[in-house]
Design goal:
Arc Repressor Mutant, subunit A, Rossmann fold, 2 domains, two-stranded antiparallel ribbon, 9 strands, globular, SAM-dependent methyltransferase, WH-like_DNA-bd_sf, O-methyltransferase activity
Length: 380
């Protein structure tokens, strides 16, 4: 026996079942069997959906870049009518419109014109969604060679797009900061809506949002809970846009802005609750552990911490978070998507108790973990 030879291993029951399902003869039998055909067809569609996902994403990007959905908001149009405005031939325009209809964003009419479907109208109504689709051009390039990416042999562009994560000098570049802040602020509307709907804010008198950018989340909380005082903590160059946001929301008299870095600075005291909204998954375990210790130190006895972000399904992998967000944060080179159990363990290690997790009803937007600092909270 050579060194490379390995003893034969008897297949497990699962292994034998896998071989049976993978047999072309078995698949052909299922496809011919009444009552099982639907399962066969459904699985076939699902597998091809996996194969064609990249083309679907690129079709969506083309629809966004050419503003096709916008052009169809008020009235349907034929391919020929849209082709010239988009700089395409009529044939290529027809291909794109047909793809948009297949994706459910458009609806093909009997006269050959295309109209905006309900999904397309909803797509246009989601703040920041078009900007996120355009932003994906960076991620597509990073994943052009996924094996090299996973082996760490590439230099991901997303790592340069988010220099603030590393505390890099680029985080002070106003243009970089503006791009980041605008992208995050747009997406925060959905995160805030889900957080306010699923997390109990009763009893909180003063909320500090750490890593809160220009204050989009705090503005939403302030409008929903008029009695809560608000504090924002983030990098000095990031929070510059918060003053105008709070003023526009009528919250200037209730909101305080604290410039600083949670990597280097202690957090201000005084808040009885601290929120971390889409912050932890941007950072390494070491950075998160250090941050949670600062959060613990800043809170009074009985104070609450609220973590709101997309989370891994953990023992039950979730397609909406364990694919997209897992690869996205890996491309950032510093963060990672954690399960609620992993976040709970980090909170417990920092000293928190009464840790509770809630799976979001839109987990691709946010799920939630809350905890308290031991001790009785002083009366407000």
């Amino acid at each position: 026996m050579t060194d490379s030879a390995a003893p034969a291993v008897a297949p497990t029951l699962r292994g034998r079942l896998n071989r049976l399902i993978g047999s072309p003869r078995f698949q052909a039998l299922i496809a011919r069997t009444p009552g099982l055909r639907r399962i066969s067809r459904s699985e076939g569609v699902a597998m091809f959906d996996l194969i064609s996902g990249f083309v679907q994403s690129q079709s969506l990007l083309a629809l966004v870049e050419l503003r096709v959905l916008h052009r169809l908001v008020d009235t349907p149009a034929a391919p020929a009518a849209l082709a010239a405005d988009c700089g395409l031939t009529e044939r290529r325009m027809a291909i794109l419109l047909q793809a948009g209809a297949a994706l459910g964003l458009l609806k093909r009419q009997r006269d050959g014109r295309f109209a905006l479907a309900q999904r397309g109208a909803a797509f246009l109504g989601v703040p920041g969604l078009e900007a996120m689709v355009r932003h994906h051009a960076v991620l597509y390039k990073d994943l052009a060679d996924p094996v090299a990416f996973l082996k760490g042999e590439t230099d991901p562009g997303l790592a340069q797009f988010w220099p603030y994560v590393f505390g890099a000098a680029g985080a002070a570049d106003p243009e970089v900061v503006a791009t980041y802040s605008n992208l995050m602020a747009d997406s925060q509307a959905l995160v805030a809506a889900d957080t306010l709907a699923q997390v109990d804010f009763r009893g909180i008198t003063h909320l500090m949002d750490v890593g809160g950018g220009t204050g989009a989340f705090l503005a939403a909380v302030g409008q929903a809970h008029p009695a809560i005082r608000l504090s924002l903590f983030d990098l000095p160059v990031v929070v510059e846009g918060a003053t105008a946001r709070f003023a526009a929301a009528g919250l200037s008299d209730r909101a305080t802005i604290h410039p600083g870095s949670f990597r280097d600075d202690d957090l201000p005291r005084g808040a009885d609750a601290i929120s971390l909204v889409r912050v932890l998954f941007d950072h390494s375990d070491e950075t998160v552990a250090a941050l949670l210790k600062r959060v613990f130190a800043a809170l009074p006895p009985g104070g609450r911490v609220i973590v709101s972000e997309t989370m891994s399904g953990g023992a039950h992998p979730d397609r909406t978070t364990d694919v997209y967000f897992a690869f996205y944060t890996a491309a950032m080179r510093t963060g990672r998507v954690r399960s609620a159990d992993e976040i709970a363990a980090l909170l417990a290690a920092a000293g928190f108790e009464n840790v509770r997790a809630r799976w979001g009803y839109r987990p691709f937007i946010a799920s939630f973990v809350t905890a308290r600092k031991p001790g009785m909270q002083a009366a407000a």
